[in-house]
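Review box. Two proteins, two foldings.
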Amino acid sequence: MSIKLNKDLIAELQSAGIRVPDAITGRKGGAGPAEGRAFLLNDLAVHIPIAAAYVANSPFQLRSQSEGYVLLKNGAEIGSIGIVPEPQYYHGQTADGIGYRQIALLHGKDCLATTVNQRCIHWQTGQNCKFCGTEISLNTGQTIATKLPVQLVEVAKYALKRDGVRHVVLTSGTGDPPGSEIPYLARCAEALKTATGLPVHVQFIPPKDLELLDVLCDSGVDTVGIHIESFDSDILARLAPAKSAIGMQQYERAWKKAVTLFGPNQVSSFLIAGLGESAESIVRGSEVLADLGVYPFVVPFRPIPGSSMQHILPPDFRTMSRIYTAVARILKQKGLAASRCKAGCVRCGACSALAAFESRPAILTCHSVRTEKEKAEAYAIRHEVFVKEQRLFEGTDVDEKDAVGTHLIAKKKSAIIGTVRIYPAGDTENGHWVGGRLAVRQGHRVSMAGALLVKEAMKRVKKKGCSRFTAHIQENNVSFFKKLGWRPVGPMENYINRPHRLMEADLEQVPEDF
């Protein structure tokens, strides 16, 4: 009997783990949520804890049978379950006698993953992430300190031929000085792309010199991961002091630069649930990332044996299901999906249940302008509407507010069909924000894109601490704005040579996300 697969089951398995026979082993160190083993639930690879102490209390148990394994919950059979078999390349060796398994591991069922430099300067200074096990596997002899490009190519070619790997993940401990690891990651990526053609994902912390991201792009890297782990500043300072010291502004600059180079949905960031932050913090952080075009790869905390957090329990699966549901809704609104990622942890998906919570992409989406190309198209729409169609401006409608404003766009599938801008009225501390330049292309004005843009603008300014949100509305659009929760606060007046009325949004009507 096959398992009736559902998203909540995956979340529960990843939080509780599975009690397995002693003969079944898995990872116990390394980078990321490393402890556990990849199982197959109706051919879907799911990485599940099996060896941590808390697994002894799991309601789930694996029982062998004549034709494989069956999964039980509280003694009752759920259905058959598979185990991702040990890949054939694990038994190979390089010419100098290093086991292929020490060079790269199989993640999920078709992802080849390796830490090219297993040393991290932050481990030497005591500033390492407390949930990390990067140097644990090195100290126990499971891996080697530095993997050479020629070794990676040899393993990848063998694994491609014998085990059908489909993409590669490259990560590294932070170099000395930080950022020096990136050119080496680029060398390894270029060697792998040249030799195998496999899509390559690279993970790193934001370097001071963001031009290093161009080096990765030029080497052929397909996707990147720039992991913040938590948007709770206190949690980050306590558990990931080196990342905290980088600062959120540098992370945001790196994310934006990466999206420009690699594209929306090809940049990701781990968010670990269960470090002590609130669920609301994770959801808010996920929306920040998704709006930038960065996929928030939410995973439950998984204690790594030997790490300083090995005795901390994962979050309850009910909490994870609530978080996944909220984040999946954000992904839909922002036009992101795991299935569109070319390589890496998001494509593999084995350590998170988030992809299972995703629904069919929305036809209409709305987010901030992410690239210069998108900004140019938003300006072009404004030009069509305000200069050519309405003749409100001569030559251009661009003004000094564009430089300080946030530009939002609405898309129908992948086509940009509308835009609006918001900006602070003077000092942001006064809480007054202004909206304007709402424009939707002809032929799309019955698509609800205008309403979506206005609602997103209201939501955005409220999250920025806005207490008063106003806009000058053309006379024929006043009734439209009233339906969206706006009220007139001034008489009809001549504004930009056309009758307008000053209106104010009722921000109390803006719903909370979580």
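Next protein.
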Amino acid sequence: MKINESKYGFVVKKRAEVSELNATMYEMEHIKTHLKLAWLKRDEENKTFGIAFKTLPSDDSGVFHILEHSVLCGSKKYPVKEPFVELMKSSMSTFLNALTFEDKTFYPISSRNNQDFMNLTKVYLDAVFNPLILNKKEIFLQEGWHIEATEKPTYKGVVLNEMKGAFSSPREIMMNALNRALFKDNCYQYVSGGDPEAIPDLTYEQFIQTYQKYYHPSNAFVFLDGDVPLDDVLELLNQEYLSSMEANLPIEGPIYQQPVQVSRQVVDYEIGEEENAENKYRMAWGNVIGSYQDYEKVIAMQVLSDVLCGDNQAVLNKVLLEKGLAENVYLAINDGELQNWCQLEVDHIKEENLDQVKEIVFDTLQTLIKKGIDRQQLDATLAYLELNLKERNFGGYPQGIIFGFQVLESWLYGGKPEAHLEYGKIFDDLKKKVNEGYFENLIQEVLLENKHSCEIVLKPSKELGKIRREKEEKKLTNVLNSMTDVQKQQLQIEQKQLDAFQQAPDTLENLNTLPKLNLEDIEAKVQKIPSKLIDLEGCKVLKHPTETNGIYYYSLYFNIDHLDLDQISTLSFICSLLGNIATTKHSAKDLSTKIRLLCGTMNYSINTYETTNKENHHAAANHMR
């Protein structure tokens, strides 16, 4: 495709090569509605579609989290209560979900099958542009909140209950407290998932108004990855939805938070009545790293995270563990937002030790600046992180899903969609800066002398849960007491309507509206892994010549059929120790550093294999990359 070329109401605006992925990024825009589309064209069978909306909370009601749940509860074309549960019965999807972030909501899918990909894309598009929530209040009551009108009325709702669970987590409470302190003037101060105390303040009318404002093509970002049927997607978007819509004013923001320095704030968090509160204090420092454009600095902070807190031998962990002042120290890098920030947290502290812990943490950082960070450790961490990032092994997630997240981390704020997809130059530059004091200066700049920072202490409370429950009961009592007889009757009616909605099964007619994958849509072909048997100095080696982005993987197998069961059990234990304990030549820390520096990872395991003669054989395996 060429710049300014038009297709199905879209125009090609930009094109950029993404060499590390052997891909081309095309940026397109719908001429009439200004919907933005980015296609990462590459030779990838697993096709990804995702549609995102910039969603900027203005309170703690969790409205965007409730919307994320609710729009997936049926649409105009597909009026099924749980369309994606039904789709999974005949789908070959490799990913199917939706996610709410602090400033965006993303609806992505992936599939290797063309027809399945288009089926899922159709259902997702109708879900976000024609949801049943517009005329079915029961969905809001179910997914958001409602008053369960029983003998003892209570607040109930899927998101409400989910967030009550989240608010029992100290990590969640700490994250919320740090956000409130660091970003007091923009959307990041609010709990995007919803604060259980604030969720019942959201009305159905506000819910619908929010949907109509934000779920509009002019505020939409469509991401495509892989060998997708582009013309089919563009035609579907334009013909079924965009051609009949008008452009809206774009959603402005989020805005940059000007630097603030917030001194120690104490926030309560709940612990069980039977727990010992003595060493349950937590202390954290939040520091803004920079904007979404400072990607090299984010990567460098990830390196520092590993060096400072990566394991029990890391500098900060070791000093606090040896003094018995804490049980865990970690440095979390929170990126993917307009302003990236980090969270240095120390867990399980006694109240009387808080100031001592703070002094030790900051003295240790000052000492590192003066004496310098171990160069070999920095080199090893850089090599290890570069390997992991370039490998792009995202576990159970298809690559296209993670690429979608990375694209939005820049594109949503006006940056290039491909900006966070390549790492080569960043690591080349960071390796040069190791001997220039760059990482020591980064500790000084970000962790010690940051003008945009805060300090939060979490205080354990055995009473907080009881206080919250009493507060909710009092709030509900006041709401019920303030209702007129007509409002109480309406509450009863809504309860009956919700019960009927939840209990009624989908009709066969509605179920048949969903597109299905048929047998003839599935290609009867087994994917073959290219293999070649070679002889390497008398040893048979099975070689797989596939694209691995320059990373080599070695697996060595040793026959252990001659061992008895007790010996195999002992060997299994030994496998868990290899590479993790000191040897005659290397300490555990030195060994870990050398493994990271020279070969990334080394793993040992015992496996059982069935051979063609139907006998089981055991092998000890050593895997390296």
